[in-house]
Design brief:
single chain, 251 residues, mainly alpha, 80% helix
C-alpha cells in the first residue's frame, strides 16, 4: 500500500510542479493575502502585537482550506475523466488511491503555507511561541487540513460536475472566513457571532495558534481546541473513506 500511495502522490506532485498556472497562482495568492488583508487592514484594526502577527494564523487556516478545496477538485476531475477507474482496475489497494490524493492535497497546501509564513515574516509578522509552540501549532494545522481535505474529497466523490462541486465548497469558504476570529478579535463581535465562531473549526485552530504565540488570550483552552481539531480530523478522514468506499463499490 505504501508504494502505491507514494506513486500516486508523486504523480500529482510532478503534475503540480509542471503546471505553471497552478504553481504561479499558489505563489501569488499568499502575497495578496498578506498585502491586501494583513497590511491594508492593519491600519483599521489595532492590536498590541501588530495586526499582521494577529492575522497570520487566520491566513494560514484559509490557505489550508483553499488547498483542501483544490485537492477535492483534482479528485473530481480525475473521476469525471475516468482516471479514477483506471486506478481501480490496477493491481493496487484501493485505499492507496484515497491516501495518495489526501497526501498530495496536504503537501500542496503546506507548500503554500510555507510561502505565507515567509512572506508574512518579511512583511513584519513575528512568532513568539518558540519551538514547542511552533510544533503544537503545526500539528493543529495538520489536523485542520486533514478534516477539510476529507470533507472536500467526500463532496468530490458525490458531485456530478465541477460547477456543482464549486457551489458546495463555496458554502464553506466565506462563512468560515467571516464567522471566525481570523480577521478580528472575538471580543469585538456580537455575542451571537461569538457563539457561531466558536463552533467553527477555523476558530479552533486560530485560537490554538494565537495562544501558543501569546498574541491573544484564548477563549477556548488550548488542550480543548486541540482535542476538537483531532476529532475534526478523524471525522473528516472517516467521511472521505466512507464516501470513497461507496464510490468504488458502485463503479
Amino acid at each position: 500500500m505504501y508504494t502505491a500511495t507514494q506513486t500516486i502522490w508523486m504523480r500529482h506532485m510532478r503534475k503540480f510542479f509542471r503546471n505553471r498556472e497552478e504553481l504561479g497562482g499558489l505563489l501569488i495568492q499568499p502575497i495578496l493575502w498578506v498585502g491586501l488583508f494583513g497590511v491594508g487592514m492593519g491600519r483599521m484594526v489595532s492590536t498590541s502585537e501588530g495586526y499582521l502577527s494577529f492575522m497570520l494564523p487566520g491566513i494560514l487556516a484559509l490557505t489550508v482550506l483553499g488547498g483542501a478545496a483544490g485537492g477535492g477538485m483534482m479528485f473530481l476531475d480525475e473521476r469525471l475523466r475516468g482516471i479514477l477507474r483506471e486506478y481501480q482496475i490496477a493491481p493496487i489497494p484501493r485505499l492507496s488511491i484515497l491516501l495518495g490524493h489526501m497526501l498530495a492535497t496536504l503537501t500542496k497546501a503546506f507548500f503554500q503555507v510555507a510561502i505565507v509564513v515567509v512572506v508574512g515574516w518579511v512583511a513584519g509578522a513575528r512568532w513568539q511561541g518558540g519551538l514547542l509552540g511552533s510544533v503544537v501549532a503545526l500539528v493543529a494545522l495538520v489536523c485542520f487540513g486533514l478534516g477539510f481535505a476529507g470533507i472536500a474529497l467526500a463532496v468530490a466523490a458525490r458531485s456530478r460536475s465541477i460547477m456543482g462541486y464549486h457551489g458546495m465548497i463555496f458554502l464553506f469558504n466565506l462563512p468560515l472566513l467571516f464567522a471566525s476570529n481570523a480577521l478580528y478579535p472575538l471580543s469585538e463581535v456580537p455575542t451571537w457571532m461569538q457563539w457561531l465562531a466558536l463552533a467553527n473549526p477555523a476558530t479552533w485552530y486560530i485560537e490554538m495558534s494565537r495562544s501558543m504565540s501569546g498574541t491573544e488570550q484564548a477563549t477556548l483552552a488550548p488542550m480543548f481546541s486541540m482535542a476538537l481539531l483531532v476529532a475534526f480530523a478523524v471525522a473528516g478522514t472517516w467521511l472521505a473513506l466512507r464516501r470513497f468506499q461507496q464510490l468504488t463499490q458502485s463503479s
